[in-house]
């Protein structure tokens, strides 16, 4: 029978793999977007996935070094990072773009795939919560699940904005509507 720590370690390693795939996806598709707001937004999402990787690697390192009691400190260091003040990128305002580039079918397809990626991540972290028993361990995966849900909210906002306006709104449009 696997121990709680083995289950947690395996789940964290799998989470790192999932986050890397997300980071690679957003980095790759950012290069395929013509609209500057779309490009910046996808790069921002890639950086977000990179933050998740860093968080998980810090947790794994803490555990490998036998400092399980430090997990709550590592988690606490990341908990407030989804606020507007710490994660909101500085993008130029829409008025700074001389011409706007109409959304292409491929742009909508990118958001469709992004939605799938985020939903898979959410499902993985929800499942991970159920695989561990310790409440502190559950909190690790709940935090990641919350981050992924926020990404899904952003993607759905951008998709709806594309339908409404025909252009990339960019992530700053989401924060303007909070």
Keywords:
178 residues, 75% helix, mainly alpha, 7 helices, single chain, Ferritin
Number of strands: 0
Termini Cα gap: 47 Å
Order of helices and strands: HHHHHHH
Fill in the CATH topology. Answer: Ferritin
**Sheet/helix structural class:** mainly alpha
Strand content: under 5%
CATH class: Mainly Alpha
Structural shape: elongated
Unreliable segments of 5+ consecutive residues: 82-98
Cα Rg: 18 Å
Mean pLDDT reading: 80
By CATH, the superfamily comes out as Ferritin, core subunit, four-helix bundle
Structural overview:
The chain is mostly helical and 178 residues long. It contains seven helices and no strands.
Please give a quick description of this structure.
By secondary structure, the protein is mainly α. Helix content is 75%, strand content 0%. The chain has helices at residues 4-30, 36-64, 71-79, 84-87, 105-131, 135-165, 171-176.
Strand and helix map with partners:
Blueprint: H1 4-30, H2 36-64, H3 71-79, H4 84-87, H5 105-131, H6 135-165, H7 171-176
Helix pairs in contact: 1-2, 1-5, 2-3, 3-6, 5-6
């Amino acid at each position: 029978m696997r121990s709680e720590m083995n289950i947690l370690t395996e789940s964290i390693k799998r989470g790192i793999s999932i986050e890397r795939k997300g980071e690679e996806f957003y980095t790759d598709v950012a290069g395929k977007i013509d609209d500057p707001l779309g490009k910046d937004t996808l790069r921002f999402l890639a950086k977000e996935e990179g933050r998740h990787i860093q968080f998980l690697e810090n947790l794994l390192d803490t555990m490998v070094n036998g400092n399980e009691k430090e997990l709550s400190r590592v988690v606490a260091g990341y908990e407030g990072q989804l606020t507007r003040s710490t994660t909101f990128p500085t993008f130029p305002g829409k008025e700074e773009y001389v011409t706007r580039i109409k959304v292409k079918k491929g742009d909508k397809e990118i958001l469709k795939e992004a939605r799938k990626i985020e939903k898979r991540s959410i499902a993985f972290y929800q499942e991970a919560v159920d695989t561990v028993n310790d409440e502190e361990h559950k909190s690790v995966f709940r935090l990641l699940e919350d981050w992924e849900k926020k990404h899904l909210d952003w993607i759905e906002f951008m998709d709806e904005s594309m339908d409404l306006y025909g252009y990339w709104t960019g992530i700053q449009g989401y924060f303007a509507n909070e």
